[in-house]
Amino acid sequence: MGSFLNGRFSMVAASRCFKILLPYKGTLIFSSSLVRGLGTHNYFTSSSVEFPCIRLFYPIVSKFAGNYNSLATQAAPDDEGMADEFLNQILGTYQNRPDSSRERCNVYVHKLCKAGNLSMAFRLLQSLRDKNIFVSAAYNKLLAAAAERNQIDLSFQVFKDLLVFHRQLSSACYLNLARSCTNTNDCAALIRYVKQVSELAFPNSTIVVNRIIFAFGECRQIEKALLVFNQMKGFGCNPDVITYNTILDILGRAGRVDEMIHEFTSMKEAGFAPDFITYNTLLNHFRKAGRLDMCLVFFKEMGDSGVEPDFLTYREMIEAFGRSGNTEVALRLFSEMKQRKIHPSSYIYRSLIDILKKAGKVDLAMSFLEEMNLYISDLSGSKDFKRKHVHSCFTTDIGILDMRNRGKQS
């Protein structure tokens, strides 16, 4: 116990001594010869600055002098004095070495988060922020740590700072924000926090709230996603086509097909025209639910509305009807696809060939095989499919960009 107290006293003493020396870091040169000199002199002078009795702390001070960067990796994570010293170091070196200072800050915040001292990490980052030093990577580490511990209050505080000072946030930020809400049932607090975020994000409020809804859906927090969606107008931002497409996909993935149809109807009643992403989302989830009757209904509505099916639409429809034994419908869709100048892929050909073989239509299957080999160079490849898939499927991040514009570009 005595050795522990002595060690603790030494750390505190070193901290206080280092605080005295820090203002003179520009004039004091901690060279090896100078440190060795501390062992034989009763005082230490530089210019007119005198430090009597510093030999008392020689073994400890030499550690600070010999390795100025060690605070970020060796300071006790629960020592507020050390955090203060580290803050002073960052402020003192940032102007001349900003990149190095940011990296050291990342390391120190990671250490604090690993030790569970998230509040101290946040206070440190706020102190730097108040000095116009914003270390976004450290904020991201803290947000991830808060998500792991389901600390919703801290997560939203960190998220709001990121939103104000960094603006364009990654998908990981939104997902971590949603994960931090996993264990909360306080709907009033959740809505209050999202409203604050919406106000900070103006004039991009709808984009940010859309991404929050999307993140809740990705984290399987369906009710929270619907809650935020239903409260959007109260935030002063209105839903758009992307909002509805996101909600349709969330409900579809949850198997809540009837609710999905209801929201689709509400979307049209609100004056929003469904786009090809809307219809692809509906058709995809009807197919997965085995509702091929609804696939035909909405596929027809898609055409009647002037929304042209794309590669992915036909691929999913052909495969769904072919594997269900409706080869005639699958073949009709395949013929229609080629008439629209949409190049089939080798995958669609192989799928049709396999379906026809199982249906006993071997001759027709062989004719499709010959056709595929004949036009192999003109078939849609994996790159074409991936590009269209990104624009058509909501398993991707909806991002800052408007997906409707991206869809038109494809």
TrEMBL record:
Q: Does the keyword Repeat apply?
A: yes
Which InterPro entries does this UniProt record tie to the protein?
A: PPR_rpt, TPR-like_helical_dom_sf
The UniProt entry's sequence similarity note says: Belongs to the PPR family. P subfamily.
**Start and stop residues of the PPR repeats:** 205-239, 240-274, 275-309, 310-344
Xref: Pfam families: PPR, PPR_2, PPR_3
Instruction: State the protein's name.
Output: Pentatricopeptide repeat-containing protein
Keyword list, A-Z: Repeat
Record keyword Repeat present: yes
